[in-house]
Every structure is written in C-alpha cells, then in structure tokens.
From TrEMBL:
It comes from the Bacteria. The lineage of its organism: Bacteria, Bacillati, Bacillota, Bacilli, Bacillales. It is a single-pass type II membrane protein. Pfam families: DivIC. Belongs to the FtsL family. This is Cell division protein FtsL. InterPro entries: Cell_div_FtsL, FtsL/DivIC. One of its GO terms (cellular component) is plasma membrane.
C-alpha cells in the first residue's frame, strides 16, 4: 500500500504542477484593452510628432519669407536714399541755373521778386 499511496501523491503533485503551468500560461502580460490603449497612445505620439514637424516647417517658411522681404526693404531704402541724394544735388541753385541756360532761359534782374517770410 505504501507504493500505491506514493503513486497517488506523485500523481496529485504532477496534476497540481500542470494546473499551475496552465494558470501561468493563461496569465497574459497585457490585456487586450491595455494593448488597444498602448496602440492609441503610440498613434497619438506619432501624430503629435508629425504635427510638430509640419508646424516647424511652416514656421521656417514664414521666417524665410520675412527675411526675404526685409532684404528687399533694405535694398529699396538704399535706392531711395541714393535718389534723395541725387535730388538734393540736382536741386541746388547752380544746377538749376545751368539747366535753365541750357534750355535758353536768361536770368533777368527785373523779373526777380524777393519774398519775405512773415
């Protein structure tokens, strides 16, 4: 009988061990709901990363456009300054008198009137 009792206890231990293995095998690391949440989180991270990159690209384009416009403004202001200098040079009395003589006009003392500021 002793031998029969040992076989039964060994069989019970084997069955108990098999049940434990089945329980360990059935236990999952993540549930399906958790897997879905992880997937949604990963997709959200990817979407936000793409959104940030596209926003940075748009900001870069706008910044580049602003710099181009500023360069054009500086160039135009330089041209305007050069033209102002040219106008001031051409508007001196000597230049005006010279140009009038070229066009056939003469300076007559009786046609000159002096205006006094009030």
């Amino acid at each position: 009988m002793d031998n029969l009792a040992k076989k039964q206890t060994i069989n019970q231990e084997v069955k108990a061990e098999q049940k434990r293995k089945k329980q360990l095998i059935q236990k999952r690391l993540f549930t399906p709901g958790e897997k879905i949440l992880f997937l949604l989180f990963a997709l959200t991270i990817c979407f936000m990363g793409a959104k940030i990159i596209s926003t940075q690209a748009a900001l870069y384009e706008v910044s580049k456009d602003i710099q181009d416009v500023e360069a054009q403004i500086q160039e135009q202001s330089k041209i305007n300054h050069d033209l102002e200098v040219q106008v001031s040079e051409e508007s001196t009395y000597e230049k005006i008198g010279e140009r009038a003589r070229e066009l056939g006009l003469e300076l007559s003392e009786r046609n000159i009137k002096v205006v006094q500021p009030e």
